[in-house]
UniProtKB/TrEMBL annotation, chain A:
<dbReference type="InterPro" id="IPR050622">
    <property type="entry name" value="CPA3_antiporter_subunitB"/>
</dbReference>
<dbReference type="Pfam" id="PF04039">
    <property type="entry name" value="MnhB"/>
</dbReference>
<keyword id="KW-1133">Transmembrane helix</keyword>
<dbReference type="GO" id="GO:0005886">
    <property type="term" value="C:plasma membrane"/>
</dbReference>
<dbReference type="InterPro" id="IPR007182">
    <property type="entry name" value="MnhB"/>
</dbReference>
<keyword id="KW-0812">Transmembrane</keyword>
<keyword id="KW-0472">Membrane</keyword>
From TrEMBL, chain B:
<feature type="transmembrane region" description="Helical">
    <location>
        <begin position="453"/>
        <end position="471"/>
    </location>
</feature>
<feature type="transmembrane region" description="Helical">
    <location>
        <begin position="163"/>
        <end position="184"/>
    </location>
</feature>
<protein>
    <submittedName>
        <fullName>Multisubunit sodium/proton antiporter MrpD subunit</fullName>
    </submittedName>
</protein>
<feature type="transmembrane region" description="Helical">
    <location>
        <begin position="240"/>
        <end position="261"/>
    </location>
</feature>
<feature type="transmembrane region" description="Helical">
    <location>
        <begin position="299"/>
        <end position="318"/>
    </location>
</feature>
<feature type="domain" description="NADH:quinone oxidoreductase/Mrp antiporter transmembrane">
    <location>
        <begin position="129"/>
        <end position="418"/>
    </location>
</feature>
<feature type="transmembrane region" description="Helical">
    <location>
        <begin position="273"/>
        <end position="292"/>
    </location>
</feature>
From TrEMBL, chain C:
<keyword id="KW-1133">Transmembrane helix</keyword>
<dbReference type="InterPro" id="IPR039428">
    <property type="entry name" value="NUOK/Mnh_C1-like"/>
</dbReference>
<dbReference type="GO" id="GO:0005886">
    <property type="term" value="C:plasma membrane"/>
</dbReference>
<feature type="transmembrane region" description="Helical">
    <location>
        <begin position="75"/>
        <end position="95"/>
    </location>
</feature>
<keyword id="KW-0812">Transmembrane</keyword>
<dbReference type="Pfam" id="PF00420">
    <property type="entry name" value="Oxidored_q2"/>
</dbReference>
<comment type="similarity">
    <text>Belongs to the CPA3 antiporters (TC 2.A.63) subunit C family.</text>
</comment>
């Protein structure tokens, strides 16, 4: 499907959607949002791009295969789950930095868990969609 | 007692899988990682088992939320025994896979998925929250779907479609049951549920909810009217995968049934009769199915169904002695069934086929391996003093005490058919002269010695486990007795989960 | 509201059961999806739905003051949706593979005779 309007629109929508997905990721701990939703929005941005410009050009933007995001994301999540065990707390307990960081706000291990989920979701969704799309 | 490290077996498997994902397409590294990870997992499981055996039930509140509100992980003796056996089976299968699985499958991520599957199993055994149990069930079935379809032969896809449809349906029933249970009690913690379900006024609703659990777990563990997906799918994947499935996956269903029906729903007269009827029918269909099959793996699949019936019958009788029988049988079954499918894989390497009509003369060519295999087969049949013999004593004894003569009859038929089928297999595969017109496709003889060792070693290891269970039955009976008294008298479990604030 | 949800629930289950009893692979998949959605609606319904009272606490309060919606069913449904997303996408890929292999939507065409066993 080649449409000049959609192609032009995606050129602006892709960065905006990615920014929005990152915003959802960061506010996710106490407000609606989070890694899963953020990851879905980010992957939808790429899906929209692939609808407008074809799957091949989306893969070119990404640079490397989305499947390689899965182990990175899983590793980040796993480490952030297990980190509290070093402080003799049960796994998955939230650890927080004392001082808030400007713009982002409070940072804790929950954010890193969400970051891992975010990467895994992007990796999984894009891998599945590319697998289905490229077979045709 | 609170112990923050009881999830260590789960994390070991998760880490192994994640690191293997980073070495995507480097199959040699993945093999080393898999064997190494399984070995560490085994050590961790042994340590956890010895701690729980000495100190009693350990619990852990995930994310530090107190028990009825957060997700709690509980390591009681039943859980850690199963975790230990799963780790042994995992270690054996991962050694076998390093030779027995084709490189093509490894390139598509066989090893990471295998470790995710084992992680799901460990998690399902250790969790104390019923929705978390559902989540781990899903981890297990998604991984098993992938393992089942890797390779993509037509027969494999056929098996996978049936397997997928039935297992998703089973999860759906399970989830519906959880939804109803939550509506009735407002809790998901199994210990908390145990207390709250007893206070529910409407007994019929509780009964209907328990039926959803029977349906869900029944499909998973392949009991009588719901078993047919198992024999039509377990013969298709590679033998290492079939070993994991046959040895462990149906047993998760039995574990969940044991847990839910001892803790949450104490079986009433109706449930017990229902389970007993299911058990007898399962034994008989499994046994008769096994008689007519000539393919070794199809035969083993029906034997799995048959022996699931033994355990369901034990749960139906629900007394201390019967549950001892069930737990002992579970311990024996995991070791033996895993090994049987590994043996089927070895026979395929030796002869290039698994059809009994085309096999023969294995004893003449490989006497030592045959003796090893005979040991496993005899312990499956239950020849004293091997491991299959002891649990049946308890089951027989309790069935006579409770005058369940139909179950006694089914047990006798099931045991005799197992004996007949295995004797027949022994005669056909090992003693009979090979049919002359067949060209023998022996891929085992030209292998390098260390590869041969890697194929035989896991079978030997599991056979040793079986031998240990059989010859050291006293110790296992002691463990089984402790477990069954914990299952009958659930107050220690409930106290350990809900009252640990006092001990902090 | 409850009555409407009960009707929707019944409809989803009935349609799901009808569809998984068909021989077509696609209908099997659709049936499984409908059953999954039916189960989600059931959990939602059993969580004692309330209208317009979110399970979010006002910043000035320390504890809940008012009637609020139970957050647990929502968490359960969210988890179930994520899981069924994974299952469905796997099932679609599998069915696509099957279709490419046997060039048919009919489950009966997939049967392999026992003689072809290894």
């Amino acid at each position: 499907m080649k449409s000049a309007i959609l192609q032009t629109a995606t050129r602006y929508l892709l960065p905006i959607l990615l920014l929005f997905s990152f915003f959802l990721l960061l506010r996710g701990h106490y407000f609606p949002g989070g890694g899963f939703v953020g990851g879905l929005v980010a992957s939808i941005a790429f899906v929209l791009h692939s609808l407008a410009n074809g799957t091949a050009s989306t893969m070119k933007i990404l640079g490397y295969k989305p499947i390689s995001l899965i182990p990175i994301g899983l590793a980040i999540s796993t480490v952030s789950i297990m980190l509290p065990m070093l402080f003799n707390l049960p796994p998955m307990t939230g650890l927080w930095f004392e001082e808030p960081i400007p713009v982002i706000g409070m940072i804790g291990s929950a954010l890193f868990f969400d970051l891992g989920v975010y990467l895994v979701v992007i990796g999984v969704v894009l891998t599945i969609l590319f697998t289905i799309a490229l077979d045709e | 007692m609170i112990d923050n490290h009881i999830l260590a077996p789960v994390f070991v498997q998760l880490f192994t899988a994640v690191i293997q994902l980073m070495f995507w397409r480097k199959t040699l590294t993945q093999r080393y990682l898999s064997v190494g990870g399984s070995f560490i997992g085994l050590l961790v499981a042994i340590r956890l088992f010895s701690r729980v055996y000495q100190d009693g039930i350990l619990t852990m509140n995930a994310a530090n939320w107190d028990a009825p509100f957060g997700i709690v992980f509980v390591a009681d003796l039943l859980s850690v025994t199963l975790v230990l056996l799963t780790s042994i089976a995992c270690f054996a299968v991962s050694i076998f896979s390093s030779i027995g699985v084709s490189r093509q499958r490894m390139l598509y991520g066989y090893f990471p998925i295998f470790h995710f599957l084992i992680m799901g199993l460990h998690g399902a055994f250790l969790t104390g929250d019923i929705f978390n149990l559902y989540v781990y069930f899903e981890v297990i079935i998604i991984s098993s779907f992938v393992l089942m379809t890797l390779g993509g032969r037509k027969a494999q896809l056929e098996g996978a479609v049936k397997y997928m449809a039935m297992n998703i349906l089973a999860s759906m029933f399970f989830l519906t049951g959880i939804g109803l249970l939550y509506g009735l009690t407002g809790s998901l913690n199994m210990a908390d549920l145990a207390l709250k379900v007893r206070q529910v006024q409407d007994g019929t609703l509780v009964g209907i909810t328990s039926c959803f659990f029977i349906l869900g777990f029944g499909i998973k563990s392949a009991v009588f009217p719901l078993y047919y997906w198992l024999p039509s799918s377990y013969h298709t994947p590679p033998s290492a995968v079939a070993a994991t499935f046959g040895g462990l996956l149906t047993k998760v269903g039995i574990y969940a049934m044991l847990r839910v029906f001892s803790l949450i729903f104490v079986p009433d007269e109706f449930t017990r009769t229902l389970l007993m009827v299911i058990a007898c029918a399962t034994i008989l269909t499994g046994a008769f199915g096994a008689i007519i099959k000539t393919n070794i793996r199809r035969l083993f699949s029906y034997l799995i169904v048959c022996h699931i019936g033994f355990m369901i019958g034990g749960i139906a009788m629900f007394s201390k002695l019967a549950l001892m029988g069930v737990v002992f049988y579970l311990i024996h079954d995991i070791a033996v069934k895993t090994n049987m499918f590994l043996i089927a894989g070895l026979i395929r390497q030796l002869r290039g086929t698994m059809d009994m009509d085309k096999l023969g003369g294995l004893y003449r060519d490989y006497p030592k391996i045959s003796v090893l295999i005979a040991l496993v087969l005899f312990s499956l049949v239950g020849i004293p003093p091997l491991s299959g013999f002891w649990p049946k004593i308890f089951l027989f004894q309790e069935a006579f005490l409770q005058t369940q003569y139909f179950f006694v009859a089914a047990l006798i038929v099931g045991s005799f058919v197992t004996l007949y089928v295995i004797a027949n297999m022994w005669a056909q595969v090992f003693w009979k002269n090979p049919p002359r017109e067949e060209e023998v496709d022996d891929r085992f003889a030209p292998m390098q010695p260390y590869r041969k060792l890697l194929m035989v070693l896991p079978i030997g290891m599991l056979a040793l486990t079986t031998l240990y269970i059989g010859l050291n039955a006293e110790a296992i009976v002691l463990v089984a007795e402790k477990i069954s008294s914990q299952l009958i008298d659930t107050s220690t479990y409930i106290e350990a989960v809900l009252n640990k604030n006092n001990e902090l | 509201m409850e009555l409407l949800l009960v009707l929707v629930l019944g409809l989803l289950y009935a349609a799901g059961v009808y569809l998984i009893l068909r021989r077509s692979l696609v209908k099997l998949l659709l049936g499984i999806m409908l059953l999954g959605n039916g189960t989600n609606v059931l959990i939602f319904l059993l969580g004692k739905i309330t209208k317009g009272s979110p399970p979010v606490i006002d910043e000035s309060y320390k504890v809940f003051q008012d009637i609020y919606a139970d957050p647990i069913p929502q968490a359960l449904i969210l988890t179930a949706i994520v899981i069924s997303f994974a299952l469905t996408s796997f099932a679609i890929v599998l069915l696509k593979r099957v279709y490419a292999l046997v060039n048919s939507d009919d489950l009966d065409d997939l049967n392999t005779p026992e003689e072809e066993d290894l």
